[in-house]
Amino acid sequence: MRASGLIAAAAQDVVKREIRPGVTTKYLSDVAEETIRSMGAIPNFKGMYGFPAAACISVNEEVIHGIPSDKKILREGDLISIDLGAVLDGYHSDTAMTFPVGEVSKEDALLIAVTRQSFFEGMKFATHGNRLSDVSHAIQAYAEANGFSVVREFTGHGIGTELHEDPSIPNYGNPGRGPRLVAGMTLAIEPMINAGTHRVRVLPDRWTVVTADGKRSAHYEHTVLITKEKPVLLTASKEDR
Ligand code: MG
Q: Which of 22, 80, 126, 222 is close enough to 233 for a disulfide, judged by CB 3.0 to 4.6 Å?
């Protein structure tokens, strides 16, 4: 899973360098796919439940599951979320990050930073012996303390020989509930944080999830190995390790 995760991390790094005004979301997904395949893995999102591309690319008020398109051209000031994964020798990885396109507003920069940090606040509790909702609660508490809201309808998940395994991992809730974390568990933990209301809806394309109020959203995800000490981020590139 680490080998798979490093390929997903490399794809994030390569795609990140290509984000600029004027490029299409289809181009970025193609870059992700080429990177994953060039490293001997397969993009595990492609074909999953019929999804047509290697990466979910969600812009601005899109929360998750945006479909890459050659008609969707990035503009200065957009927020772009890249969610992708790899399968290598039967083992899956899954990672998501939100990036600014050029210069973004102060509030948008804060949304990206708080979303990322909410994941790391959750990580403080992602240790053998804790309960799953200890992680969920820490994510919610941090995001809401910073004035943002937590998406309820979509969650993180177990991951391993399948992309989506039990348990589902909400990014909100009271602590001390859910399964106990055990060393060796591998989980995809992925806060989805909104600038306005936590409510979302699905567009008529039946994939793209957007905020109900049209305000912006950010996403941050790693595939995480639970241990008796600090969790290991299997999809982290150097800056997040
Ligand atoms: Mg995921």
A: 222
